[in-house]
Amino acid sequence: MLKRQQAESIKNVTVEDPFWTPLQNLVMDVVIPYQKAILEDAVPGAEKSHAIENFRIAAGESRGEFYGMVFQDSDVAKWLEAAAYSLVLRPDAELERQADELIALIGRAQQPDGYLDTYFIVKEPEHKWQNLEECHELYCAGHMIEAGVAYYEATGKTALLDIVRKNADLICARFGKGEGQVRGVPGHQEIELALLRLYDATGEARYLETARYFLEERGAEPDYFTEERARIGWRHFGPSSGDRNYAQIYAPVKQQTEAVGHSVRAGYMYTAMAHLAAETGDEELLAACRTLWRNIVQQKMYVTGGVGATVHGEAFSAGYELPNDLVYAETCASAAMIFFARRMLEAEPKAEYADILEKELYNGLLSGMQLDGRRFFYVNPLEVVPGVSGCLPEYRHVLPVRPQWYACACCPPNVARTLTSLGQYAWGENADTVYAHLFLGGRVRCQNGAQLACRSAYPWDGQVSYTVECEKEFALALRIPGWCKHWQLTVNGRAAEAEMKDGYAVLRQSWQRGDTVVLALDMPPRRIYADARVRADAGCVALARGPVVYCVEETDNGGNLAALRLPRTAQLRVCPGGDARLGGVPVLQAEALRLLPGDTLYRDEPSAQQETTLTAVPYYTWGNRGPGGMRVWVRE
Amino acid sequence: MLKRQQAESIKNVTVEDPFWTPLQNLVMDVVIPYQKAILEDAVPGAEKSHAIENFRIAAGESRGEFYGMVFQDSDVAKWLEAAAYSLVLRPDAELERQADELIALIGRAQQPDGYLDTYFIVKEPEHKWQNLEECHELYCAGHMIEAGVAYYEATGKTALLDIVRKNADLICARFGKGEGQVRGVPGHQEIELALLRLYDATGEARYLETARYFLEERGAEPDYFTEERARIGWRHFGPSSGDRNYAQIYAPVKQQTEAVGHSVRAGYMYTAMAHLAAETGDEELLAACRTLWRNIVQQKMYVTGGVGATVHGEAFSAGYELPNDLVYAETCASAAMIFFARRMLEAEPKAEYADILEKELYNGLLSGMQLDGRRFFYVNPLEVVPGVSGCLPEYRHVLPVRPQWYACACCPPNVARTLTSLGQYAWGENADTVYAHLFLGGRVRCQNGAQLACRSAYPWDGQVSYTVECEKEFALALRIPGWCKHWQLTVNGRAAEAEMKDGYAVLRQSWQRGDTVVLALDMPPRRIYADARVRADAGCVALARGPVVYCVEETDNGGNLAALRLPRTAQLRVCPGGDARLGGVPVLQAEALRLLPGDTLYRDEPSAQQETTLTAVPYYTWGNRGPGGMRVWVRE
């Protein structure tokens, strides 16, 4: 059971999905070219990036100063990674030429020993590797490694893979417990998951071993960061708070039981932990992953999948402390949960992981991107109040409309690389089973020989059909989503009995080419209630249909959304077609009440009410029709 | 109508009240001696004050450095003011000796020209009057003037009055629109109300004129603070945010329509505006006061009377934005509302002002002090959550138990001086009317010749009796509180018909010595609802009885108070006796429900419920039985 399910090759899944294919096209047509232009500083009015210019300077081909964040290189890496996945989805000679050119530049910027970080090459060469806590060298290296692996898998070209291997070899030689090695750990985790991907791509054990070292060394005593601070006597970002939760160094990772600190750092680390556990069968490590997963999902996750409830440290907050208005819920943290879920599924195929993967994809991640692909949220609130969100000091980070581009451009490329690689999250396999984690339209060609096509109008319709495209005996394991109360399964039109295992309906038989399996998931609009310990949601209800969480917006429902009341008994109606400005996605409606303002601030009687129609739209579409209030949780 | 009601002399009211007399005794027996010991640095383990030592150094009688805040002197002034009121309540030769000694020291510290601010005398003499925006010289002067007036009125001694007049004369000469004068305004308002009190005590017109100057100059263009910043090129507290709301300079005061910025600065300024309007009959100024009052009371006041909803700038927030957990609601701001209400009552005796005065006294102000008088809240939350309040970064200012003493010791002396001078707030008069604003037990001897005694067990009992102690025709105007729906009035045991005017039941007749008027206010426990625009209180109810707002505490109701549900129909019971640890005050009880935690964070069904008994205690008594959760607003 702990043996890792073999990763699908990047090319053995194709996507033809009425929901996701247009989004992937949007990323390819709009986001990736736009991001490239940003990296080249070719977008008038946008925040200066300078990221590619930094490489030119590092290569000695341009003069000037380094500009940007200490982790500016990672923007280039994430763009390359998304471009790689895009080339798998749709060949594009011009894009490939741009990527090759950029890769060649990166190669010229790399130093003879393999070192590759333009900030330190250009600006502070004397400070290389000195400030692991703050300076993101291992983080940037990790992102470039991910890009190198992706570009190799997408194109077969090894130029970037060779560059990142040389860099990884330098890192593997430098860090570890061996004689002459430095026992450092990164301030921002990322190198761990990247080295494991490099191990998957190359089979080189040292990459896995160094990933293991970074994970196992984390949280060790004496604390590396404390010693480093004392040793170097300078800071990059400013005084340390000494908070040992922030970068998850409060205990060795196997002993960590609570998700704390910066949620993206945490999510990347948990991803690597799960990957390593799946790879090595380390039962203790997997147990820690399960504990941390459960802590997040049972105490620290918004109903939209958002994680990291507080802007202070972009961090997880206390258990059940999920304020809808003060929220952080960074788009990148939802991406990290997607990565974590994928690796947990590889460690043990349980539908609970895929349920969260799905929740993040349709809600917390997708809400990060404007429908036209041109603007992005970093913070994904569940309640927006005009004059409060984005205005008052406590709420300044909670923007009511997506901004163009940030100086810290982490989220947009994370959305781009996740959406373009979606096929890698949809399926799983082992020797005799194919897992359908998501109901992603398209085809899969498994390493175990199974071949399938999937067709669906998910998430707007619950009917999903699979056509077998091989002759072979294998088990087809279809996830029954946690939100689904009633479903039916037919094989070639006849009702089929499936064995339920870990949330999957499993059909094991000898399949013929053309066999058709239809899964019909009942998908009525539904109400969601938060646990009694979540004080922010007390007395409230959220609406959803299938995996899609809904919200109410001022543009449909008028102002002061806190005054809306959805009676417990009100029928929820699905209205297909919805608002054309939202692409015609189905909206939900119900007869509701609205509390009316009165003459005094406090009164002896509850507010008078009037009848109204509540209209809810998919959460991921919010903020696409101009500024205004929004709420996910409506008072019942 | 605009003619100011003559202020009662400080000595013509005595207090014998079963509720307030013990609190006044507590202030005299515990708070004032403790504060004196703090000022002398004689309390082991307490935050260093150094306030009196600063005066010794300024007087050249001690060596050393100034220590403390730039407004450290005001702690001494507020202590002297409270001591003065205390001497009216209860002669105390030793206290008077201490005060006289301290006053003599202050006199020796004063400079020949009248200048009196130990920070600048000792530490930065070259910077006197240079940084009005930040450096609190006029604020400290104002507090010392208040002390001087109070001590003179209490003891007849003029030593401190002479000192502050000399200082005030210096200020009056320096600031104004005349030739050679500086057109400055203070960063923290206080001098304005103080000069008006000095005018009341001395009849010197220049004090009123300079108060008027400071008020009228405020918000003028070009902005004094902007020019000052540019001129001096140094800062005391750090960079200016340039926020013109913070110190209420966004418009000339007569054009200000919204209560914004630092709530104590605002409250002190509004107090002075109302005082000046009452004194001068300036109708335009009074209209501005009414507008600002209404803005606070109708949009920006907690049900406890707390004002200033945000810690950021200790400021008013947006309208209807009254978070119960993030709250600031500084004790000093409630004191400022008491001062403002008093001056509005003097400008126009309307019960709406006295209703708020009462609300502040029994709730927002009193909650600032521990029942034993030894610890104080600065921040008065309406929701405390263990592990959140005082713990998480957003909530670090919201302490779950009262701390001992702060480096910035503004609130404790504000409570002390307000409680010891309570008699000055209870009554009002004009030529032919006596107003009973509060139902304060004791006696009043009016300047119009009327004399009355009042006896009550308010706020626990609604029956209040007045005995006439003179023979005279006058109108007795008894406030009918806004919270009271049913009441009866008898004169000498017979039902009496009163004329209602501005919220007062007015009995006009020729009174005989011994005539008895009994006002019986129905005081059932009641529910309070917030307006539909207050999103923080949506779906919730607050409980009160008479003027006393109640809250639920974890110690009576178990943890997770957000899970409590008080059904709309549940009967509220008054349980006299209550908890002995709270002095036996009546508590409220009702049959209620408690939502039960479940297995998952989100579910298809609302949480299961179990029956429970809800117990509510007076809000001002919260936090006296150890740490734990607290809520004012309970879900209905």
Apparent shape of chain A: globular
User: What is the percentage of strand-forming residues of chain A?
Assistant: 15-25%
Biggest interface, chains and residue tallies: A-B, 53 and 52 residues
Query: Average pLDDT of chain A, to the nearest integer?
Result: 95
Describe the structure.
Two copies of one chain form a homodimer. With 636 residues, chain A is an alpha+beta fold. Helix content of chain A is 35%, strand content 17%. Chain A contains 17 helices and 23 strands. Chain A has helices at residues 20-39, 51-58, 73-89, 93-109, 118-123, 137-155, 159-174, 191-202, 205-217, 224-232, 263-280, 283-299, 331-347, 351-365, 411-420, 423-426, 554-557, and strands at 13-15, 383-384, 427-430, 433-436, 442-445, 451-456, 463-468, 472-479, 487-491, 494-495, 499-501, 504-511, 516-521, 525-530, 540-545, 548-553, 564-565, 573-575, 587-595, 602-603, 609-618, 630-631, 634-635. In chain A, strand 6 and strand 7 form a beta hairpin. The longest helix of chain A has 20 residues, at 20-39. Mean pLDDT of chain A is 95; it is low at 1-8. At the A-B interface, helix 12, strand 14 and strand 20 of A face helix 12, strand 14 and strand 20 of B. Strand 14 of chain A pairs antiparallel with strand 20 (602-603) of chain B, so a sheet runs across the interface.
